[in-house]
Write a structure and sequence with these properties.
- It is built from eleven helices and 32 strands.
- The chain has 768 residues and is of the alpha+beta class.
- It has five domains: 100 residues, no CATH class; 95 residues, membrane protein fhac (Ubiquitin-like (UB roll), Roll); 80 residues, Ubiquitin-like (UB roll) (Roll), CATH 3.10.20.310; 66 residues, Ubiquitin-like (UB roll), CATH 3.10.20.310; 250 residues, Porin (Beta Barrel).
- It has an 18-stranded mixed beta sheet that branches. Strands 3, 4, 5, 6 and 7 form a five-stranded mixed beta sheet that branches.
């Protein structure tokens, strides 16, 4: 099982959040990446359904620890300052912004002006502090903000002076004080209410008849942020700096799309001092589209690599990105044959007159200087004190006598990084010039031991905590081991994994895992022990991960109150072959806004594999995320699981849907089928459909409405389902660094006897 890391607390991690680490689910094949509790959704990059609630409090706790000791402790208890600094530091106090913003502003001044300042501050320092604060206020839209600086001089004379951002009036000199108060008078905040454009009409369609080069809506987003239904005031604030950045971004976007002469300027600006509303007119002069009119190749030294490169044809739109692509392609062609010092320049000379189609033709010249041919004299590894050098050399495609190809050196560096036992992998050439050079890899090994505390809170398991111990680079062969122990209010779990990178080749890793789980489910107590032998390969071109292996496990149930308890197997042994495929094309695994993800997992258990049961278990899971514009998104999820085989399938392998990552009108496991007496029974087949609409409200907050559907079949003869349940609901989310913190309520539309009207769920991580 993998857990998200808290960047603010090295060595401490939260249990139960989502992290882009594996595709396992409870009830899936043990050892294929995860042994979760209950049934986390595979649509997530890791597990779902557990909440790192304690981690939220830890963030506040750690933030408090960052306060200066003098702020956190009484003066008598604070640590004494270094002998090199004065015993008393001149005090800067900020007022007028609210307690939190006052504190943040003071911290900014301490950072910029230096916490080691002397016992007094002079007029220059006070004016510097004023300009720092006012520049920040102007950026937030307070264009007329001013500051009243007050205090008592070292001579005992009170002073109070009002300063503005232009320092229209300055402080009297000389002036020195032990303490100064900077009272900020913000004035009215200016807000950008409207941006109109002229000159975009010519870009409504491409010269070839294609879609618009840039739409007015897209151009407006450079100036006016849209952060949801209630965009916060600071995001809508107007400042000259924001306006200049918007003009620059719009201009550079047009140039990246082939309009290399594009210019943008402010054609008009109206500020209403009464309301603070600002309206801006932006003039866009796109100029002509640049197209390649001809290509010329020039080589100094070796010519063949340049001649072999296929360059863009005449008529291709010319942009800086096209120039970069040409430069990289030509340079790599020289690298392939050992010209490690090759230099490539790409020049473009536009014609003065426009072509008949209105475009400007560009004469492109590609010039290459090959330099001398370079060979590898030797390969060295520095910093690998514990790592076997034979192992390191086996990962490097760079060998003495080869042409020195920087691309091969980079591939070797990446392979060394993938061993997972180095904090740093870099490379250099010695000497840096000459026909023969050593390739030197600079390595920094990870600590031999590493430990992390685990903590979290789940809506079902409640408080949980544990420890993870990792051992790196065992026997100097880049082998790794991990021991994880987790205890919650309803479960005890442990697993040990021993991993060998590139066991069967450059891209195939191997691992051995042993695991154990005791967990109190809704209608029975789960017991699982076993081990797995696994092989894993990542196909990076398609972003597909494949895992296969063998698992042997002992499954048991106690205190079984299911409707099938009379015929359920109390214990069973399972030997199975397992196979998993995962593809993840989402833009962000923790907070997906665009793209898709799917995975399929097959488990084939048979008596000839050492068990006493026969069955086939298949799971498929997919999610799709579509931006709708206006900070709105549509999220779709589909899950299907089925177990074929004999009538007596281990209860541990059946499906018990419900919870924050399944049908959200039910708590974990409470959407499972019921028998005639109303008792729960495990499902042989399940289909879960999730449809969710998300609208950003403000900042990190968003609101969601959802419809969840579930179909189940307790008998495989009723495949795919003979009972359906539906839940509708709504919720709010707060985006954190490890995924959304979710509070949701699901209302059940077609309740069975004994079902709740709805369920409130609190969780961390995306649902699918």
């Amino acid at each position: 099982m993998a857990w998200p890391s808290w960047p603010c607390a090295p060595g401490a991690r939260a249990i139960g959040g989502k992290s882009p680490c594996h595709a396992g689910r409870r009830g899936n094949v043990h050892g294929l990446e995860a042994h979760a509790t209950q049934r986390p959704r595979a649509g997530s990059p890791c597990h779902g359904g557990a909440t790192a609630f304690a981690g939220v409090f830890l963030l506040f706790f750690l933030a408090a620890l960052r306060l200066p000791a003098a702020d956190a402790l009484p003066a008598s208890e604070a640590s004494p300052p270094p002998a090199t600094t004065p015993h008393h530091r001149a005090e800067l106090t900020v007022r007028g912004l609210g307690w939190w913003d006052n504190y943040q502003a003071r911290r900014t001044l301490d950072l910029v002006l230096g916490e080691g300042r002397g016992e007094t501050v002079d007029a220059n320092t006070i004016e510097d502090a004023t300009l720092i604060l006012l520049s920040g206020m102007i950026e937030q839209g307070y264009l007329q903000a001013r500051i009243v600086a007050s205090g008592v001089t070292t001579d005992g004379v009170p002073f109070s002076h009002e300063l503005d951002s232009a320092l229209t009036t300055t402080l009297p000199r000389p002036l020195a004080t032990y303490a100064v108060t900077l009272h900020v008078i913000t004035g009215r905040r200016y807000t950008l209410r409207e941006v109109t454009f002229s000159g975009l009409e010519s870009l409504a369609t491409r010269p070839d008849g294609g879609a618009a080069v840039i739409t007015e809506k897209e151009a407006r987003e450079f100036f006016m942020a849209n952060l949801g239904l209630f965009t916060p005031a600071d995001a809508k604030a107007f400042s000259p700096g924001k306006l200049d950045r918007g003009l620059l971004s719009l201009r550079e976007t047009l140039r990246d799309r082939g309009y290399m002469e594009a210019r943008t300027r402010v054609a008009g600006e109206q500020r209403d001092p009464e309301t603070g509303d600002v309206r801006v007119q932006v003039a866009v002069e796109p100029g002509p589209l640049w197209r390649i009119g001809g290509l010329q190749r020039e080589a100094e030294g070796k010519e063949e690599p340049l001649q072999k490169v296929e360059l863009p044809g005449t008529g291709t739109p010319w942009t800086r990105l096209v120039a970069q692509d040409i430069e990289v392609a030509v340079r790599n062609a020289y690298y392939d044959v050992g010209y490690a010092d090759a230099r490539v320049t790409v020049g473009a000379q536009p014609e003065k007159e426009l072509a008949e189609d209105g475009a400007r033709r560009v004469a492109v010249t590609v010039r290459a200087i090959s330099g001398e041919e370079v060979h590898v004299a030797g390969v060295r590894f520095e910093g690998a004190g514990r790592t076997n050098e034979k192992l390191l050399r086996s990962k490097s495609p760079v060998h003495p006598g080869d042409p020195l190809d920087p691309q091969k050196v980079e591939r070797a560096r990446l392979r060394l990084s993938r061993l997972g036992v180095f904090d740093l992998v870099d490379s250099k050439n010695e000497p840096p010039t000459g026909p023969e050079r050593d390739v030197v890899f600079l390595l920094r090994e990870q600590p031999r031991w590493d430990a992390s505390l685990l903590f979290g809170y789940g809506s079902y398991e409640q408080l949980r905590g544990g420890i993870e111990l990792r051992q790196n680079n065992l026997r100097g062969k880049a082998h790794r081991s991990r021991l994880e122990l987790v205890q919650s209010m309803k479960s005890s779990q442990g697993d040990y994994t021993y991993s060998v990178p590139e066991l069967l080749g450059p891209n195939i890793d191997g691992s051995v895992k042993v695991f154990g789980l005791l967990r109190e489910e809704e209608s029975f107590d789960r017991e699982e022990y076993g081990g797995s032998l696994l092989l894993r390969r990542v196909f990076r071109r398609w972003r597909v991960e494949a895992t296969t292996g063998y698992t042997f496990e002992s499954l048991g149930t106690r205190d079984n109150t299911l409707g099938t308890s009379a015929t359920d197997l109390d214990t069973s042994r399972v030997g199975s072959l397992n196979f998993t495929l995962v593809q993840d094309r989402r833009d962000n695994p923790l907070l997906p806004r665009r793209g898709w993800r799917w995975y399929v997992q097959v488990e084939d258990a048979a008596k000839w594999l050492g068990g006493d049961v026969d069955y086939e278990r298949l799971e498929f899971d997919a999610s799709w995320h579509v931006p709708l514009g206006g900070e709105r998104w549509l999220h779709l999820g589909l899950t299907h699981g089925v177990v074929f085989g004999s009538d007596r399938i281990p209860v541990n392998k059946l499906f018990f849907p419900g919870g924050e990552n399944s049908i959200r009108g039910y708590a974990s496991g409470k959407a499972a089928p019921r028998d005639a007496n109303g008792d729960y029974v495990g499902a042989r087949s399940e289909v879960v459909v999730n449809i969710e609409f998300e609208q950003r409200v403000t900042g990190n907050w968003s609101a969601v409405v959802f419809l969840d559907g579930l179909g189940t079949a307790a008998d495989i003869g009723d495949y795919p389902f003979d009972e359906t349940l539906f839940s509708v609901g709504a919720g709010v989310r707060y985006q954190t660094i490890i995924g959304p913190l979710r509070l949701e309520y699901g209302y059940n539309l077609n309740r069975r006897s004994g079902d709740p009207a709805g369920t409130v769920l609190f969780s961390l991580g995306f649902p699918f």
